[in-house]
Specification:
Elements (H helix, E strand, L loop, with lengths): L1 E6 L1 H9 L3 E4 L3 H14 L3 E6 L8 H9 L3 E6 L12 H9 L14
Parallel strand pairs: 1-2, 1-3, 3-4
Helix pairs in contact: 2-3
Length: about 110
Amino acid sequence: MKLIFMGSNALADGFALLGFETFPDATTENVESVLSELLQNKENALVFLEDKLTRQPGPSFLRARRESGRIIITEIPPLNAPDKYRPSVEELVARVLGRSVLDKPESVKSV
């Protein structure tokens, strides 16, 4: 299984130390290229993407999420604003289960 990180240079070094193949300062074009190759070669992969790379998904990204059980894509929140991060799955959860399930209980809210 391939371990891949695509995102800022600041995070890439840490992922490289963990044994990930890294793409520092990656672009959405890099994401599309890597995912297209993984899909074409039918490879297994765990892919970590900084959230900015998932905002405008291309065809290979969407296909990997929709069709491939071999490629797991995980979003990483931005270093400079982790509290403002909203995963793409959040809207789906809100539609299916209701927005109230996403509200933090008072005991968990940040001070």
